[in-house]
Specification:
Shape: globular
Distance between the termini: 55 Å
Number of helices: 16
Radius of gyration: 23 Å
Structural class: alpha/beta
């Protein structure tokens, strides 16, 4: 075996393997993005959860919205979802997205109980989405947290491939090169090396699998192609920077002077690469949502900041002219002091009153949504755990995945990807978005 090949197999070439082994970016599948608000945000206190008959609850006194009879709401999105009139999340969304974009977005609240302040909640859907075919052309799944999901959350049903953790733009740009011992080669040497690899046969590749690092190298060799030689020759030619699209950069408020490690620039980079097909699923994570400090002010401020990010993601779909699917989740939820007047201060955790959100955008027409929520609340102001998804974050995540597949007109593949998770009768109950 040539000396350089032994070096190559031991050089830590996981990045190069993901780089060279390109695949289709999910074809016509909508990009899939998750936004995790770590800490226990009051998602059920922004959109207004309804009862089993899709009516207001008699009371929302435990979740900061007062009596149902006096609750002031406003309708938003294509399916007229009721929000608390002073919702911080809605205020943020309206700040960063256009009315036209929201009219082409279906929003569904998903009441579900989850553990407070826990990274063990099974919210992550990226394994299912990847198995459905959403793969990046030159980048893997992207995440924000150094975990197996890229989130402060566990995976639901299917373990995803390890994500590329992005803390600054350079993490993405740097992943499109080679590292370890190979980084010491000149640019010309790197190009010649990958050209040689590209000419190796499948049988030659198979022969090196027993080497240290051989399986990764073998995979690289078997799927190498001439297009990847060009990528190694000039990785900067790839369309990875959000600044390359002025309209997109404007959505995120970034420019050439913006720090590439700022949240805005990092989120913009991750979302941009999902929408142009470079990356697979995107997992965004924001801390600071354990805000029960005896006030309402800090919580409203954090909710508004989350709403701004949600609105920017939706507006990114619009600017790029792409269908898109967004999930918002948090660890449990929050309780207010018992009050019949909306706006009471946040006092403690309350995971039984939690919710997730799913939002589907289509630039050509508003997605169909037969309801504003999946599941419901009880008169006790908690997610009904007798419903299919109400008592399990993992089941709720799987149901959201089923809706994502329905949105992509591929619901017939759900049973293949997550077999025996839902019966036909259950699917009929949980499919809301199409």
């Amino acid at each position: 075996m040539p000396t350089w090949l032994n070096l190559f197999a031991k050089a830590g070439v996981a990045e190069a393997a993901d780089l060279v082994c390109t695949s289709a970016a999910g074809g016509d599948m909508a990009p899939f993005i998750t936004l995790k608000l770590s800490g226990g945000a009051g998602l059920s206190s922004n959109y207004v959860p309804l009862d089993q008959n899709k009516q207001l609850l008699p009371s929302y006194t435990k979740i900061g919205l007062g009596k149902g009879s006096s609750l002031r709401t406003v309708l938003e999105f294509s399916n007229n979802v009721p929000f608390y009139v002073l919702s911080g999340i809605l205020a943020g969304v309206r700040t960063s997205s256009s009315a036209e974009t929201r009219l082409k977005t279906a929003f569904v609240g998903v009441p579900v109980r989850s553990q407070d302040d826990s990274s063990g909640n099974k919210f992550d859907i990226s394994g299912m989405v990847a198995k459905a075919g959403v793969q990046g052309k030159i980048l893997p799944n992207l995440g924000r947290v150094n975990s197996e999901t890229g989130l402060n959350a566990n995976y639901a049903l299917l373990r995803p491939a390890a994500p590329l953790v992005v803390s600054r733009f350079e993490d993405v740009a740097g992943s499109l090169g080679v590292s370890g011992s190979l980084s010491k080669l000149s640019q010309l040497q790197k190009e010649k090396l990958f050209s040689a690899v590209n000419r190796m046969t499948a049988s030659q590749a198979k022969a090196i699998e027993n080497m240290s690092g051989g399986k990764t190298l073998s995979r690289l060799i078997q799927c190498a192609n001439i297009g990847n030689e060009s990528l190694i020759a000039n990785s900067t030619s790839q369309n990875i920077s959000p600044l390359g699209n002025p309209a997109f950069a404007t959505v995120w408020g970034i420019n050439a002077n913006t720090s590439t490690s700022s949240q805005d620039f990092v989120f913009a980079t991750m979302v941009f690469n999902a929408l142009n097909g470079n990356a697979g699923t995107i997992n965004l994570d924001i801390g600071g949502y354990d805000y029960h400090d005896g006030t309402r002010t800090s919580g409203d401020t954090r909710d508004t900041a989350a709403g701004v990010v949600i609105g920017r993601i939706l507006e990114s779909f619009a600017v790029m002219g792409k269908k898109g699917f967004l999930v918002v989740c948090s660890d449990g939820s929050v309780a207010s002091s018992e009050s019949e007047i909306a706006g009471a201060e946040w006092t403690s955790d309350r995971g039984t009153g939690g919710s997730m959100y799913m939002l589907a955008y289509d630039p050509s027409m508003a997605p169909s949504a037969k309801a504003t929520q999946l599941g419901h609340f009880t008169d006790g102001q908690v997610a009904d755990d007798t419903f299919i998804t109400g008592g399990s974050a993992e089941k709720a995540a799987a149901a959201i995945f089923a809706n994502y597949m329905n949105f992509n007109k591929k619901v017939n593949q759900v049973e293949t990807i997550i077999p025996r998770t839902f019966s036909t009768a259950e699917l009929d109950k949980i499919l809301i978005v199409s």
